[in-house]
Amino acid sequence: MTRTSPSAADLPVWQRRTVMTCALLGLVLAGIDAAIANIALPTIATDLNTGVGPVTWIVNGYQITAAIFLLPAAALGETRGLRAVYAFGLGLFTLASLACALSSTLPLLLLSRVAQGAGSAFMAALSGAIVRKITPPPLLHRAFTAVALCVALSAAVGPTLASAILSVASWPWLFLVNLPIGIVTVSLYLYAAPHHQKHAQTPRFDWTGALFNAGALGLGVLAVDALSAGAHKLAELEAALCIASTIALIYHQRKQPHPLLPLDLLRIPLFALSIAASVCAYAAQIMAYVSLPFFFENFFHYSPVMTGLLVTPWPLLVACAAPVSGHLASRHPASLLSSVGLVLLACGIGSLAMMPANPGLADILPRMAICGIGFGFYQTPNNLTVMTAGPVHRSGAASGMMAVARTMGWSLGSALVALIFDFDKASPDGGTRTCLWVAMGIALLGATVSVARRSVRKASH
């Protein structure tokens, strides 16, 4: 027997708002915890009496596990039901946070962070699907504006929150603060989330596809980490295995009735172009995010604290621009808005590359603001297109691919920064201006891909 899914319009307002809040809180928790441990790494290394190299796996383990679980989480959400699978992810993340706080050795903390990364993947992969399922079509632009706001604010608040907690408490409290939020969110979600339609016969989970997926995404992240550490031979091996796993994954998925990799969605030109634009946008963003601190500290001689303040306008302006672009998305083509946003992002990054030798706040802050406004204008319309290009019953797969595109963009951007820093280290700025010029070019490429969606949409009509 199948259970009929209630339509979004049939849900009471209180129920939609409660489930929406739970989905957004999951995004915030996953976003903050992706970066919050970075601030505490020196403290954790001292407290656990370990070296800097091993302790970095507190971050790497989380990121790699999150990348590996994105597509399996999306597939499980569609076949087992969003309600049960998202609640499982929230519960796993909450329990893993407690385990992190109670860890007395580095191996225990690493295992706990791996579990926490898996939980965060479920939340990141399924939040967009939940938002689409419970939101009536006329309100989708507002809903995805809220999603963009939460992603931007979690990026802006994460480092500040970590610093504030560490100023008054020990590092385990970075993870203990998740407990009350997680417990309340899981309880509210299970109470309010509707029971969506389930398959009469649940498809078998594709373990072979999951293995190839782990190789494709996990080895890709590992290759970037090895490249950043200067281990070029290891990076080349991991990159080769990543490419081989990706080819094997695509070949294997073509034969599966319920594939992890949503090839049916990727055959839709509007969806595929939106994913490609997303990869470009996040690659440009992370290239600027990674290279700018080196620019400010090593070349312009700002302090680390001042550098953090100089970077802050970017995510804050993303949060300010997202509601505006979300409002405009209900009246103007998403392809146009996203393209304008990516052109603005490119202009902002290019202006940062052209900063004078001794820039003051008046030289830096407006440039950072342009980047934030541009990215904010791109993000909401593009995410809305990704989530609505395919049928509603494929929302889980679309949401998972949106998270995968973000991960791919960040990995590609990080790898490019490592390569440029290595080959351009003799330049006066250590390669940071080159990174920014390349990031500008990638943003313009994303704008070109984005505007191409307009002709695709016209052709489909």
UniProtKB/TrEMBL annotation:
It is a multi-pass membrane protein. It comes from the Bacteria. Signal peptide: none annotated. The lineage of its organism: Bacteria, Pseudomonadati, Pseudomonadota, Alphaproteobacteria, Acetobacterales. Residues 19-458 form the Major facilitator superfamily (MFS) profile domain. Its main location: membrane. Keywords: Cell membrane, Membrane, Transmembrane, Transmembrane helix, Transport. It is found in: Cell membrane. This is MFS transporter. The keyword Lipid biosynthesis does not apply. The chain crosses the membrane at residues 21-45, 57-77, 84-104, 110-131, 143-165, 171-193, 205-224, 230-251, 271-296, 302-324, 336-357, 403-423, 435-452.
